[in-house]
Amino acid sequence: MPKNSKVTQREQSQEHVTESVADLLAHEETLDYKNSSLNVGGVAGKKVPQIEVPEDDGRPAWNSKLQYILAQVGFSVGLGNVWRFPYLCQKNGGGAYLVPYSILLLLIGIPLFFLELAVGQKIRRGSIGVWNYVCPSLGGIGVSSLMVCGFVGLYYNVIIGWSIFYFFQSFQYPLPWSECPIRRNGTLAIVEPECDKSSATTYFWYRQTLNITSTIAESGGLNVKMTMSLLVAWIIVCLAVIRGIASSGKVMYFSSLFPYVVLFCFLVRGLMLKGSVDGIAHMFTPKLEKMLEPQVWREAATQVFFALGLGFGGVIAFSSYNKIDNNCHFDAVLVSFINFLTSILATLVVFAVLGFKANIMNEKCVVENAEKILGYLNSNVLSHDLIPPHVNFSHLSTSDYAEMYGVIKTVKEGGFAQLGLEPCLLEDELNKSVQGTGLAFIAFTEAMTHFPASPFWSVMFFFMLINLGLGSMIGTMTGITTPVLDAYKVQKELFTVCCCIVAFFLGLLFVQRSGNYFVTMFDDYSAGLPLTVVVILENVSVAWIYGTKRFMQDLEDMLGFRPCIIYFYLWKYVSPLCLIVLISATVIEMAISPPGYNAWVQELAQERFESYPPWALAMCFALVIVAMLPLPVVYIARHFNLMSDGSNKLSVSYRKTMMKDISNLEEQDESRFILGAKPGEAPSSAAARGGFLTPGSTKTLDTNSLSPNICYGTSYQNFPIQPQSPHRESLQSPESPPLAS
After folding, report:
1. Binding residues for Na(+)
2. Which helix (H) or strand (E) holds 85?
3. Mean per-residue pLDDT for 371-400?
4. What CA dihedral angle connects 383, 388, 389 and 392, to 10 degrees?
5. Where is this region: Disordered (predicted)?
């Protein structure tokens, strides 16, 4: 050490000096920064510094705030907003369902979304790095998030592949699913029996698209058309994310905004269709008694949970590329409400179109049953006296049929069932709830066949689905690549391409003829319970281990204002309680519901519930166990010091801030960072047992803010030693607050 250094000068003056981090880094180059929360010393009369992480740490950044918001919106707004939310709304009381959904969005949705945005932005790392910082013993949270992202990405891109196939099939008139195919046997032409027993759109989906087998045990080999569609889907995703946010951010300008253009076009067109008002009125008619059912609240909580993408790691990854002083609270509220309003818009569109379809199907039902009645009249099975005089069979309205049906049912009470007449009620058609692939690839496609210029609307619809899925896949892939690229020095482009290639080959499981059954299996088991466990551990690690008060202080330093006090109670009590109830309900639901799938039986041309065979049942539980396995493994490994706690992998910005603090303290010769005899061992002075007050201030500063080793108590404590001065007042250090504030 040079003789003119300050540390050497103190040693020559026989002043007692303890070996410190400051001594080791005394000659580090001073970095340009503004302030840091680690500077617990200071000069009297000066303003207490605020946290600011250097912006030039080499980490990629969003080109604009709009690009970032569109990325978060694109990730959170996905296929579930179009085909899951409307189904839940219809099933659980129409407009009444919006009440529990809105309440749970405010209680668990926005607070937890805000929490993920804040930790990602503060620590500027992916999911693995973030939870290694907050609590290394719970570092498995990030690994579990990554694994769930992998499972979901495998089957989610298959759905994009299906949409790509339908997109290209839409460039023909008439649409290929508008009519049943004709089977010719010499001069005899008959309708395909499987199609005749179901419908043209159902047949096209199950037979011509999936060519599905009757059970999950029958593989049937690869479906070539779906394999090529999946390959195209992975090429698109790879090109979108190959350069990180530099490429995906630009894609988001289109993929996030285009679905709204299509939804508004569909809404305007849908409102012009006959029966659209009936569908919307049916959707918004509240069934208040449904609000008292626990199942409704459980499904609302699950939808809130997955609609915002909580626990996947994509939210944290996107926010880690933000500036440190970005207002993430505003972002959380904005994105949450955009997501909610998008679900409402999609529901209006779906029910407007389904209302039109219900009217078409109801009129078809009236015509078919009127022909039956005419046959019974001509064969004298029914008397002409039963037909009201004003009924005209050539222009039979639904009200006339309902009147005629009521008269016949009353008179022929004993033998009415043998007539085989149907009531043809519009309400029955509207109550036929469909979701997921049944809505997108069967019900909606059938409705579009009745649209004028149906190929145009079909192209628009499936192009919208592709963009919705692409936005979610970009977030999912970012949740996988960002943590790995943060932790290991690998080439971004090469790693992304390798991920996509491996995912394509693993995804071949889903493009077998039985692949749709595996999509259902992964959707039911790979994400639900594991993600709920991940999110409650995220909540607990921040609110109870890191400390809610400490986290609120970090937010105040970062945002420049203190968030509303309600977040303190939501993070500490309400959200954990809601998540525990949700986990319990999910486990109970899995226990009482027989594990199985809906198999398509070709001979009957309908679905039938089948239980999973033993090997498939083992696969279901393996998905849950493998996704959650990193949680106990990492905890045990770090508890017994079998794994590094990750403290040697601090982000560049975090290290620069720490070194700047130390450099400042050395230059000012006002205080030191004293290292105890062992990591985490504090000096014996009273100041070592608590927080500290800046000179001339009564504000207590937390010396453990965002310490990567806080779970172990092995973080290096920073303690100020003020030079002796006759005019200096003595500072008493308050007792340290408990760890979980």
Report:
1. 74, 77, 81, 339, 468, 472
2. helix 85-91
3. 79
4. -100
5. 717-741
